[in-house]
Amino acid sequence: MGAGHDHGHGHSHGLVDRSIVSSRAGLRAVAWSLLVLMATTVLQLGVYVLTGSVALLADLIHNFGDALTAIPVGIAFLLRSFQAEKRAGYFVVLAIFVSACVALWQSIERLVDPQQIDYLWPLAAAGVVGFIGNEIAAQIRTRAGKRLNSPALIADGAHARADGLVSLTVVGSAVVVALGLEIGDPIIGMVITLVILRITWQSLRTVQADPGEPDPAGGHPRSH
User: Taking CA 29 as the corner, what is the angle to CA 165 and CA 123, rounded to the nearest 5 degrees?
Assistant: First the structure.
């Protein structure tokens, strides 16, 4: 499944839809989009070390959390094991939740103790990188989804495109800080943290669903 958004495709974001597991082409699309999001996260991490922006920290955690949701699919495909997928899914949910807590804590700390942010151009560029990375992932998923007639992949593509807009809020953070409103950075960080928490909730509901029952996060039956 994809991350806490519903895009009118009858599919909400949690873990990647299990129907994709049966298709090598579908798994390949998920893997390529995973690599793109991981590369995006690494680039954003470098800029975060330079700027210390908590809005950027929250966005890179957001992109990293989205990339992690592909792991259970790979495990299920390799092992053909629903239980292995389920255990991996719980691990992913925990990892995303811990990441959200880190982002929230950093945002609150920065609200209490505002700090000047330098290197605003690299910060804005990191937001653009997040947008481009998600757009590439969206193209990969959407094209594969149309080719394979997979509503799940098409919906994941729509989700990635929406996540690109979330990354653009980092550009907004650079703008408000440039205007002298340092408090805008942690506020934007907290907003993105809410998106991460929604990913956590949708992913947990997906993992808890039993095979053969409708997936509570998206309405699709969870079958092998």
Answer: 30
C-alpha span between 100 and 160 (Å, rounded) = 19
Enumerate residues 6+ apart whose C-beta is below 8 A from 108. Answer: 186, 190
Q: Which residue has the tokens 């991460």?
A: 196
Phi-psi region of 24 (alpha: psi -120 to 50; beta: other; left: phi over 0): alpha
- What's the CA gap between 130 and 125, in Å, rounded? 9
The answer to whether the predicted template modeling score (pTM) of the entire model surpasses 0.85 is: no
Cβ contacts of residue 200 below 8 Å, gap of 6+? 65, 93, 96, 97, 100
- Amino acid identity of residue 60, one-letter, is L
Per the model's pLDDT, the better-predicted residue between 3 and 93 turns out to be 93
pLDDT (tens digit per residue) in 43-88: 999 999 999 999 999 999 888 887 877 777 667 667 766 777 677 7
The token pair that represents 4 in the structure block: 């806490």
Give the Cα separation of 161 and 166 in Å (integer): 9
Q: Report residue 171 as tokens.
A: 């550009």
What are the extents of the domains in the chain?
Answer: 18-205
Give the model confidence (pLDDT) of 168-179 as tens digits. 999 999 999 999
CATH no., domain 18-205? 1.20.1510
